[in-house]
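Case study 2.
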Amino acid sequence: MKFACLAVRPAQRRGLVVAHVVIGAVLFAGVAALAVDVGLLYSVRGDLQNAADAAALAGVSGYFSDAGLAQDTSRIASIVESRTQEFAAHNQSFRSGPTYIDVSDITLASFDFAERTESFSVSGSERFNAVQATTRRSADSPNGAVAFYFAGILGMKEAAVTASAIAAMDDRFAGYRYEANRGPALLPFTVNISVYEDMSANGPDAYAYDDGPLSGSDGISEVKLFPWKESGGGGGGSSSGGSTSSDGSGNFGVLDFGSGGASTVGDQIRNGITPADLQAAIGTTDVSYVTESGEPTTYSMSGQTGAMSSMGADLEARIGDVIGFFVHDQVTDPGTNASFRNIGLRFGRIMHVDLSGAVAERALVIQPVAYTSDAVSINPNARPTGGQVGRVVLVR
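Prediction:
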């Protein structure tokens, strides 16, 4: 049997090689194009994530406002949207200018730190404390789609990329680092935590603030910070000004930082207690109310006797100022031996002062404010403050 041998001439072989090379080059170019443009997409998504993170964090800062404290959702939304859009625009993604974010991509929500996996709610049934910000590069977004470099070889001109972030106000206040000339001055006043929380929730709403105290409601209840007649083991007095035993009697909620009497207290009202005053009284200026293991920490603070009507002029000069003050849950011993068990700090704006007349008619009235700074520390084991003191944190 004979077999026929098909001979391929050299010119034909060269033609086949050229065809294979061309096809291979096209395929290689396509793969390379995809690799470059897929890398581009990852880079753009990273840029958008940075913008979303910054936008969400900035937006949550809006809860540290009178609107946030009052849970006035329309005013909160206005503040949050403005800050979210401003800080998103500070970030750019590849081959684009500022990153714009639509109002429809900004969501107010409630975030429960105790249930981190399924805790993001937009129902409004719980206190709003979180913001979700979504940034987009797509054909229908103000940022435009991501234009490919080389993938057009394969018929792909552009793609859409999205990133999202959730930030929240963590109000589990655990401590405060008190430094000179930073943040609100701490004044030498203390109020029982139960009285304070009850008045914060149910007290009168007779004042508002707009470059100064005004008569009228703004959704934030005022608190009578001073004087409260101390006369019970529970240590806080009541709306009638006292309770039943002799513990704490003679004290109205003024703390002793310096043993200088009325003149020292007046100076501390005008300028705030100094870090040295706090150090001398409790042994630290870095106040911590929760240990690393989650146990509560308290501080014993001495009280001063008398209602000190002489403080009136000094306090009136501070009307409209934001100040810090102490909260306690117990007071022991009477008179000059009284000791308040300090369990925390709060912040408020002085709205009204009247220290004339009978003690029962005197009042230093403050409006709680929501406060944050890098001097504030938080801890998962600390007691929430109802949106009054905390930090902004990124949660997703």
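The chain is about 25% helix and 25% strand.
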